[in-house]
Asparaginase (Marinobacter algicola DG893), 159 residues
Amino acid sequence: MIEIFTTGGTIDKVYFDANSEFEIGDSLIAELLAESNIHDGYALNGLLRKDSLEITDGDREIIRTAVSQCNAERILITHGTDTMPETARALLSVKGKTIVLFGAMQPARMRRSDAVFNIGYAWAAVQLLPHGVYIAMNGEVFEAGSVRKNLKAQRFERT
């Protein structure tokens, strides 16, 4: 069983106008998994509905506690890309689990989103990787503590 925690971020954003006003909407993760013919083998839990720039250390503690207390050994976490490396680092104290964070550069509701690819990639990664904390983005897996988001290139890279 894979436990999936949603925290918001671009993957779940809903834009309202050309001025970039948005809110974090209901997660589309179950819908995206169903489109990939994945209908079971996971539990979905909403933790937060925040842009990652608004995630605080207190929020990271909520995420860490939820991950620590769940019975699953394999965990996926949706997260906004701007502070994903910080949250991954905050999860390094959790032992005995494989934890993979992922998100999207464009909302899942948009036609040209990377969300579908990223969730499929993270789904495979969480089943194949050894225990630890990882970020799965851009078709690569990065270990927590050795990754950053390159804002200019709009991609993740090793540090």
The longest helix spans residues 115-128.
